[in-house]
Design brief:
Number of strands: 0
Radius of gyration: 22 Å
Number of domains: 3
Distance between the termini: 63 Å
Structural class: mainly alpha
Shape: elongated
Helix content: 55-70%
Largest sheet: none
Order of helices and strands: HHHHHHHHHH
């Protein structure tokens, strides 16, 4: 059996190489890059002359245009709403990625504008309401479907309205949007 080789401690240039490789491979935010670099320093150790400053490196990468928190947030918002997730789920994803309020504003606005369309996409994917195969008469089943929509980040009013629609019912996105705005 082969013995596992311990990696060499990092220095300034090796840390920069790791950061460049990470940024080149993944869409990321400043906070996620800082967390990655700190984890690597903790795992491998540090042998540089100066103390390691992951935050300064992330800021330098942002200044060079390698990282764009606002662009990352908007792309994440588009991806999540496209898969049928709601405003609350988008906000939680941005918060976990370390996106601050100003960088995430456009992403939250996009999620707000797409609230009804994403709720309908989720309902279609999960076969809820007008996309279902049979009417929901059991209160526990209705509660389960409502809970699924709320966990996906949709507001209670729009989730309840979609669950209440019977299979094959005509869907009026404008009416759903109005109902969502009136209860928000």
């Amino acid at each position: 059996m082969r013995e596992r080789r311990t990696p060499q401690p990092l220095d300034e240039s090796k840390l920069n190489e790791l950061a460049l490789r990470y940024v080149g491979r993944f869409a990321t935010s400043r906070a996620k890059l800082v967390a990655y670099l700190k984890r690597k320093i903790r795992e491998r150790g540090w042998s540089g002359e100066r103390t390691a400053d992951a935050a300064a490196m992330a800021e330098r990468f942002a200044a060079l245009g390698y990282i764009d928190d606002a662009g990352f947030a908007l792309a994440r918002s588009r991806a999540l709403t496209g898969r049928g997730y709601g405003k609350r789920r988008v906000s939680e994803a941005l918060r976990s990625a370390g996106i601050d309020e100003t960088d995430g504003e456009a992403a939250r606005d996009h999620a707000d504008a797409e609230a009804v369309a994403s709720a309908l996409r989720f309902a279609e994917r999960r076969k809820i309401g007008p996309f279902g195969t049979k009417p929901v008469t059991d209160p526990k089943e209705r509660q389960r479907l409502l809970a699924a929509m709320i966990r996906a980040g949709h507001g209670f009013a729009i989730a309840r309205a979609i669950v209440a629609l019977g299979p094959g019912s005509p869907v009026e996105p404008e009416a759903l949007a109005e109902r969502d705005r009136s209860l928000a």
